[in-house]
Specification:
- By secondary structure, the protein is an alpha+beta fold.
- The chain contains 15 helices and 23 strands.
- The chain has 2 domains: 7-247, Aminohydrolase, N-terminal nucleophile (Ntn) domain (Glutamine Phosphoribosylpyrophosphate, subunit 1, domain 1); 269-451, Rossmann fold (3-Layer(aba) Sandwich).
- It has a 7-stranded antiparallel β-sheet.
- Helix 5 (137-145) crosses helix 6, helix 8 packs across helix 9 and helix 10 (332-342) runs parallel beside helix 12.
- The radius of gyration is 22 Å and the shape is elongated.
Length: 455
C-alpha cells in the first residue's frame, strides 16, 4: 500500500453565508510544502458533495476558471506527497465514494501501519480496491460496519471504528453532506489544529495555514491525540475516542516537514530548529569564518549555530523560491537536478572562507553532495558540515519519506566515509543522547524511530 505524508485543510462557513472554496485553496497553498504531487477539494452545499482534484501544485490544479466553478459552504482539501512513488491521478485526495446514494469524502495524512493486512482481509471478503493508497481502507471499514446512509452515521461510532481497526499514523478529515469530522490518532504522530472565528471554523495540518485571514479574535488550538472533532450546524463538538496511549509525536516534523512559523506539539518550529542549531554548535564546535545555511530548511538551525558559536551568519547560498523542495520530489534523478535549480552560491561571500554549512538533516546525501561541490567550485577554502539533528539510520513506517535502509547514508556508512563521499572537511550531527537530554521529560512524548537502529 502507498504511504503518504500530506497536508489537510477544512473550512466551514457558519450560517451557510459564503462559498469556502477560495479559503480551502488558500489553506492548501499555505500547506504546499507538505505535498506537491496532487491537490484536491471536496465541497458540500448541504445536500450533495462535489469533488475536484488533479496532479500538480495547488495553483496548477485550481486555476481561476476552476475556482469559480466549485461551490459549497463547507468542505475539505488535501495536498499529497506519496512515499513509494505511485504518483498518479487516481491516488489524489480527497477520496470520494458513493454509498447508498450518498457521497462522502476522506483526506488522510499519515500511514496505516496494518494496511497490508487489512487489505488482504477485505479482498478475501470480495472487496475491490481502485487505488494503491491505504486511505481507501477507511471507507471499506465504515461501509462494512455502519448501517444507514453516511450522513446518518454517528461521529463517535466512526471514531471508535477507526481507532479500534486502523493502526497509526493518521490525521483525518471526513466530509459528509451534513458535517465535517476531524480525527487525530491516539499517539498524535501527525499534527492537526483547529481554528474558530466569528464566521467560520477551520482545521489544518499546521496552524500557519490559518494566517491568511485575520485571527485576532480567533480561538486556535491543537486537536488532541485521540480526539475527534465534529463540525455541524455551525458548532464544534469534541469526542475523546481514545486518550489512554502515550504520545509519539514525530520529531521529524520539527526537523524538516513543518513550516517555521507553525506551532506543533506545543512548540514553535522556528524556535525549536534554532535551539537544535545551538545544540549542534555546543556539541560540535569547529573553527571557521562564516556559518552558511542550506536555504530554506537549514536557516533556523544555522541562526542558532551562529548565535551559540559567535561565528557570523552569511547568506552564501541563495534559494530560488519558485523551485519546490527536493526532499519531497519522488523522482531521485529529478531531485539531483533540482539542487542546482534551487540553490545558487554567492561567490563573493564564500570565496577563500572556512565555511560551516548547516542543514536540518541528511537522508540520502544526494543533495548535500552537490551543495558541497558548488561551494568548492566557488572558492570555499574549507566546508564543515553540521547537521542539526541526529543521524537518520532507520526507515519510517508512519508516513515520512525515509526510504529503504540501504538508501540512508548514515545507516550504511561511517562518519569518515560520509565525509569523504560528500567531499567535506568534517561532518558532525546532534547526538540522540544530547537531543533527549535537551528535551528533558518531554522526550517521552516523541517518536525517534528514524534516529535509532534496528526495526
Amino acid at each position: 500500500m502507498l504511504m503518504e505524508n500530506c497536508g489537510l485543510f477544512a473550512a466551514y462557513s457558519k450560517e451557510n453565508k459564503y462559498n469556502v472554496s477560495g479559503r480551502i485553496i488558500e489553506g492548501l497553498l499555505a500547506l504546499q510544502h507538505r505535498g506537491q504531487e496532487s491537490a484536491g477539494i471536496a465541497l458540500s452545499d448541504g445536500s450533495k458533495i462535489t469533488t475536484y482534484k488533479g496532479k500538480g501544485v495547488v495553483n496548477r490544479v485550481f486555476t481561476k476558471d476552476v475556482a469559480r466553478k466549485i461551490n459549497g459552504y463547507f468542505g475539505i482539501g488535501h495536498v499529497r506527497y506519496s512515499i513509494n512513488g505511485f504518483s498518479n491521478y487516481i491516488n489524489a485526495q480527497p477520496l470520494s465514494v458513493k454509498y447508498k446514494g450518498e457521497f462522502f469524502s476522506i483526506a488522510h495524512n499519515g500511514q496505516i501501519e496494518n494496511g497490508n493486512k487489512l487489505k488482504e482481509e477485505y479482498e478475501e471478503k470480495g472487496s475491490i480496491f481502485m487505488t494503491t493508497s491505504d486511505t481507501e481502507l477507511i471507507p471499506h471499514l465504515l461501509v462494512n460496519n455502519l448501517k444507514g446512509v453516511p450522513s446518518s452515521w454517528e461521529s463517535s461510532n466512526i471514531g471508535k471504528l477507526i481507532d479500534q481497526n486502523i493502526g497509526p499514523s493518521y490525521s483525518l478529515l471526513l466530509l459528509f453532506k451534513n458535517k465535517i469530522i476531524a480525527f487525530r490518532d491516539s499517539y498524535g504522530y501527525r499534527p492537526l489544529a483547529l481554528c474558530e472565528t466569528k464566521n467560520g471554523i477551520y482545521v489544518a495540518s499546521e496552524d500557519s495555514a490559518f494566517k491568511f485571514f485575520p485571527t485576532k479574535d480567533a480561538t486556535i488550538r491543537e486537536i488532541n491525540p485521540g480526539e475527534l472533532i465534529e463540525i455541524k450546524d455551525g458548532k464544534v463538538k469534541s469526542y475523546f475516542i481514545n486518550s489512554s496511549n502515550k504520545h509519539k509525536y514525530c520529531f521529524f516534523e520539527h526537523v524538516y516537514f513543518a513550516r517555521p512559523d507553525s506551532n506543533i506539539f506545543d512548540e514553535n518550529v522556528h524556535l525549536m530548529r534554532e535551539k537544535l542549531g545551538a545544540l549542534c554548535a555546543q556539541e560540535n564546535p569547529v573553527e571557521a569564518d562564516i556559518v552558511v545555511p542550506v536555504m530554506d530548511s537549514g536557516f533556523s538551525a544555522a541562526l542558532g549555530y551562529s548565535k551559540a558559536s559567535n561565528i557570523p551568519l552569511e547568506m552564501g547560498l541563495m534559494r530560488n523560491k519558485y523551485v519546490g523542495r527536493t526532499f519531497i520530489d519522488p523522482d531521485v534523478e529529478e531531485r539531483k537536478m533540482g539542487v542546482r535549480r534551487k540553490l545558487s552560491p554567492v561567490k563573493e561571500v564564500i570565496e577563500n572562507k572556512r565555511i560551516i554549512l548547516v542543514d536540518d538533516s541528511i537522508v540520502r546525501g544526494t543533495t548535500m553532495k552537490h551543495i558541497v561541490k558548488m561551494l568548492r567550485e566557488n572558492g570555499a577554502k574549507q566546508v564543515h558540515l553540521r547537521i542539526a539533528s541526529p543521524k537518520v539510520v532507520n526507515t519510517c513506517h508512519w508516513g515520512v519519506d525515509i526510504p529503504t535502509q540501504e538508501e540512508l547514508i548514515c545507516a550504511t556508512k561511517s562518519i569518515d566515509e560520509i565525509k569523504d563521499l560528500l567531499n567535506a572537511d568534517s561532518i558532525e550531527f546532534v547526538s540522540l543522547e544530547k537531543l533527549k537530554e535537551f528535551l528533558n521529560s518531554k522526550k517521552q512524548e516523541y517518536c525517534f524511530k528514524c534516529f535509532q537502529g534496528g526495526n
